[in-house]
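Key result, reporting period 2: structure in, sequence out.
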């Protein structure tokens, strides 16, 4: 059969349809990537809530506000701090683990990540499964302080005084299993003294009673204490660091005063719910590291003797596991239990 040519108008229409379809497919294939990229870059779409699982007034709030302010400059949304104390941090940890808005993160620390899993029969969250480490923000030196009315000027005199009054002196902390609780129990084990622990719902309330003389001693992160030490309202008898602090050059370390190898440092890091999309976690990690390593945050924390870190999520995860292995036997030996148990 002879070939019948397609009329010019029909051929033109057919070609136009083919070009239109091709152009449409091209737009989809080429335009889809920018659209997807734009959707990803649009996160966060509202302010980020940084939950601090303790009452205002402690080292945790100082660290949180320092990094939150800087992160807000590059994330495209503000990062605001929300203090939510209670149950040694368990309430806040559970709330953040169960959050679904993809805009709620938490400031984890030694207590909620390395202590609570071993002092509570049942913890309402899994420190490893429910959370994705973001970055270790800061390490904070622990200071050992007493009320100035106590007739001691250094750790040696304090230990002798405590041994002369077994069970008659009180020390406070931000709660059972808190960093301050661990730090003082660690000192009690090393020095063989007996003192009564008085737990509070946060460092702020505890400091109120310590400053008034209702408590005799405490161990607290340096940022929350320096102003009171410099004002003479509290006396620092030792630092938990391996070397003396530039801000307190006349205060010897615990190790210097007869307890070789003694070291006690608090730490704080950012975590997000592990169910977040990977691209959100990656963006948060990058911005958190950038903020933590910034001169602004480093200088701000240094003013309060805190050290900024800013490691990777993988490094922070490994650090958490090493701290769990370190403190598990200490908790067992000291028989630390939750309040009311």
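The corresponding designed sequence is given below.
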């Amino acid at each position: 059969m002879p070939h019948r040519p397609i009329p010019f108008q029909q051929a033109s229409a057919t070609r136009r349809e083919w070009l239109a379809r091709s152009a449409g497919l091209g737009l989809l294939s080429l335009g889809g990537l920018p659209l997807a990229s734009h959707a990803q870059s649009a996160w966060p779409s509202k302010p980020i809530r940084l939950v601090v699982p303790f009452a205002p007034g402690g080292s945790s709030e100082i660290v949180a506000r320092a990094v939150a302010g800087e992160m807000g400059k590059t994330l495209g949304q503000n990062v605001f701090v929300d203090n939510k104390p209670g149950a040694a941090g368990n309430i806040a940890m559970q709330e953040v683990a169960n959050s679904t808005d993809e805009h709620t993160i938490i400031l984890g620390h030694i207590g909620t990540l390395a202590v609570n899993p071993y002092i509570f029969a049942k913890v309402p969250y899994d420190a490893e499964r429910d959370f994705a480490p973001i970055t270790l923000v800061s390490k904070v030196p622990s200071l050992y302080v007493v009320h100035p009315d106590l007739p001691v000027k250094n750790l040696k005199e304090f230990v002798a005084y405590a041994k002369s009054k077994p069970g008659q002196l009180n020390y406070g902390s931000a709660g059972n299993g808190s960093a301050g609780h661990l730090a003082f129990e660690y000192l009690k084990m090393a020095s063989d003294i007996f003192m009564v622990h008085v737990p509070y719902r946060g460092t702020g309330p505890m400091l109120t009673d310590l400053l008034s003389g209702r408590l005799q001693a405490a161990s607290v992160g340096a940022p929350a204490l320096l102003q009171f030490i410099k004002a003479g309202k509290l006396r620092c008898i030792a630092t938990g660091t391996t070397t003396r602090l530039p801000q307190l050059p006349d205060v010897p370390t615990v190790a210097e005063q007869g307890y070789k190898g003694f070291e006690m440092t608090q730490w704080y890091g950012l975590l997000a719910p592990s169910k977040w999309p990977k691209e959100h976690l990656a963006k948060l990690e990058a911005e958190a590291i950038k903020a933590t390593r910034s001169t602004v945050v480093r200088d701000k924390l240094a003013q309060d003797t805190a050290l900024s870190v800013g490691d990777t999520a993988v490094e922070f995860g490994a650090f958490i596991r090493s701290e769990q292995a370190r403190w598990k036997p200490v908790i067992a030996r000291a028989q630390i239990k939750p309040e009311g148990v």
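Residues 134 and 285 are 5 Å apart (CA to CA). The first strand starts at residue 48 and ends at 52. This case is discussed further under Risks and Mitigation.
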